[in-house]
Specification:
Elements lengths: L14 H6 L1 H20 L7 H33 L2 H7 L9 H9 L9 H11 L12 H19 L2 H15 L7 H30 L2
Helix pairs in contact: 2-3, 2-9, 3-5, 3-7, 3-9, 7-8, 7-9
Length: 215
């Protein structure tokens, strides 16, 4: 797919615009997956298991960043389509189809909105978007769960704090029955990278879930 977003010449987002949001995300997922497939099997450039683990962790962080950018774009475009419920949420009158700059200001206030997990994201969208303009509840339970697991890993890799380590260990124990902490790279690449590929599939699946809402 082309990694260039089509220029928008109208003020209200069409379904095709919302579907176009998926192109950069899908391209990134495919690119990172192909990269990891090559790196896991590389022998000359990547000479040690530790280097492979480092790469797996780095790619996972990039994957999260691509997902977050996609979510922000999608929230803005969904709000542009119908801002009626957001006006009720804020208790103010806003245009039915605010432009992108206003949508970004209303949603993020010049900063960013941090969703601690997919449930938190969906809960927020249900407060501010009408059902006809809210694709996020369409995410399947399996994809929600796997992406939340990725974010437990991401939080640890971003901070290396005791709290994030405890959160990651809790996920390891609950979801995989592990009793001993493993650094994320080791966890991701164990068993022929089965977990890493499952996480790629979760993001791919999430994109399909949301794309399908507009069909």
């Amino acid at each position: 797919m082309a990694n260039v977003r089509p220029k928008r010449t109208h003020s209200v987002m069409k379904k095709a615009d919302l579907q176009a949001n998926h192109e950069p995300l899908d391209d990134a997922i495919e690119r990172y997956r192909e990269f990891m497939e090559r790196m896991i099997n590389a022998q000359r450039v990547i000479r040690s298991d530790q280097e492979r683990r480092d790469l797996a962790e780095s790619v996972l962080l990039r994957l999260c960043a691509s997902w977050e950018k996609f979510v922000d774009e999608h929230l803005v475009d969904c709000l542009n389509r119908d801002a009626s419920k957001f006006g009720e949420f804020l208790g103010v009158t806003i245009p039915a189809h605010p432009n992108r700059d206003l949508c970004e200001g209303l949603l993020f206030g010049g900063g960013y909105r941090d969703f601690k997990d997919i449930g938190n994201l969906i809960g927020f969208t249900k407060k501010v978007l009408p059902e006809t303009s809210n694709p996020f509840p369409a995410l399947t339970t399996t994809n929600r769960k796997r992406i939340d697991e990725v974010y437990a890993i991401r939080n640890y890799l971003s901070h290396y704090s005791k709290r994030s380590r405890r959160g990651l260990m809790a996920m390891y124990t609950k979801e995989y029955g592990l009793e001993r902490f493993r650094e994320p790279g080791h966890f991701l690449l164990a068993n022929k990278a089965k977990r890493l590929w499952a996480y790629f599939e979760a993001f791919e699946g999430a994109s399909r879930d949301l794309y399908g809402f507009w069909e």
